[in-house]
Structure formats: C-alpha cells, structure tokens
Amino acid sequence: MRLSRKVWIVLGIIVFVVLAIILATTYSGQVGERRELSDKLTVAQNRLPALTSDKGTLEGQLGTARSSVDEAAAKYPQELHSIEYGEHIYDIVAKSNVALSGLSFPVPSASSVGTVSFSTVGLSLSVSGTRADIFQFIQTIRTDPRFASTRVNSISMSGTSASISVTIYAYKR
Predict the structure, then answer these.
(1) Three-state helix/strand/coil letters over 96-121
(2) Which of 19, 30, 76, 126 has a CA positioned 20 to 30 A from the CA of residue 38?
(3) Burial 36-62 (b: 16+ CB within 10 A, else e)
(4) Total Cβ atoms within 10 A of residue 166
(5) Confidence tier at 163 by pLDDT (50, 70, 90)
(6) Are 108 and 116 spatial neighbours (Cβ–Cβ below 8 Å)?
(7) Closest-CA residue to 92 (of 144, 15, 42)
(8) pLDDT tens digits for 108-120?
C-alpha cells in the first residue's frame, strides 16, 4: 500500500503542527518560569539591604551577649572544691557569734541551661546563736565575695538554732 502525495503532505502538516504546539507550550512555560524567577529576584534584591543591616545589628547583639556571658562566667568559680567552701564557712563562723553544729557537702552534680553547663553542690548548715546573730551570719554568706555564686535556698529556725540550705554554682567552660 502506497500513500499518496496528499496524504504525506497532510501527515507532514500534522507533525509540524504537533511540534509547533509542543514548542509553543514549552516556550510559554519557560516564559512563565522566567517571569516568576525575575519577580523573586527583584523581591530578594529589595530585601537584601534590610537583611544586611539586620545582620550587622544582630552580630552586634551577639557580641554583647557573648561578652555578658563571659562576664557572668568570670563571677562563677570554675570548679567546686567543697574543702575550700568549708574553710570559708569556718572563717565566717569564727568572725560571727554563732556556733556551727553541722556541715555537710554532697558530691557536686552537673546541670545545664541551654548551652551553659555548670555544676552545683548543696550545702547544709546547722548553726546556733541568737536570731540576730543567725541572720547576720546568713547575710554575711549572701554578701561575701567568696560566695558570689551561692543561693540561700531555705532557713528553718527553731529557738536559737537554725538549719540553712544553700546551693553553690560553678560555671563549666
């Protein structure tokens, strides 16, 4: 079976039309993508100056925050040596009008808040004396620079004696 010349021309025209439709569809899609990319590029270029200035501001804030963390870390001891704190307690007791009847230090425990790691140790003290002397003893612990990283947790008073619980914090680098 031989196809006539007219059939070949019609087939050629159909192939040509199909190819033209495929090319037109592809071109139309690329034009749309190009327009979309151009719009996104314009938006990005418009946002760039604001983001650049924000970056500078944020880097400045980060530097300030880091220096604040370094300053705060310098106030905390690097390691907890309970023997040293025990000696400091005995120094304060010797200078005050209270009698120390009990002192206990458990093993330090590790803790962290975010990326800041530190160790803590709880200290339990039993002292006796007048209420005024006991309060003065507690105030001395709170204000003594050797106990700058110490928090008084609780005080339980009964007559002329008191049980005091404190936590000592040490920053870990």
Answers:
(1) CCCEEEEEECCCCEEEEECCEEEEEE
(2) 19
(3) eeeeeeeeeeeeeeeeeeeeeeeeeee
(4) 21
(5) very high
(6) no
(7) 144
(8) 777 777 777 777 8
Reduced to 3 states (helix: H, G, I; strand: E, B; else coil), residue 9 is helix
pLDDT at 76: 55
- The residues near 120 (Cβ < 8 Å, ≥ 6 apart) are 80, 108, 109, 111, 167, 168, 169, 170
Nearest CA among 100, 94, 89 for reference residue 141: 89
Q: Where are the beta strands (DSSP E) in 114-172?
A: 116-128, 150-158, 161-172
For residue 3, what are its two tokens? 């196809």
Residue with tokens 């019609």: 10
